[in-house]
Amino acid sequence: MSTASFCVLSGPGLKGGLQGTHCEFSVEMPSREVQPGGGSELSMHIRGPSKAVISSRPNANGYIVDYFPSEAGEYILTVLCDNDHVPNSPFTVQVDPCYAIAFDCTCCRAFNGVDD
After folding, report:
1. The pLDDT value given to residue 112
2. Positive or negative CA dihedral for 80, 86, 88, 91?
3. Average pLDDT rounded to a whole number, residues 4-30
4. Which of 7, 60, 83, 84 has the smallest set of CB atoms within 10 Å of its CB?
């Protein structure tokens, strides 16, 4: 049985997120696999409507993975351990649009409750 089959993934980034924001998930690996100098190789990539920067950083149980999609849409997230898919990989993630509400304050006026 490959090491990939023992990996456990969790977190909201496995389902998706909002465009222009960081989406995260964790990858838990068998304890011996995250020791310095002698572990398995974790690799991941993401395809979709835009290039999404993806990175990982180690934690006590494995890795925290972060990706940053700049456009909304459907992305395919692939996570491999030693070139084998982890359980349920590839993932289909939905990135929703992030609507920024802009206020034009030139049409507002403040007053202290007394009419001019």
Report:
1. 58
2. negative
3. 92
4. 60
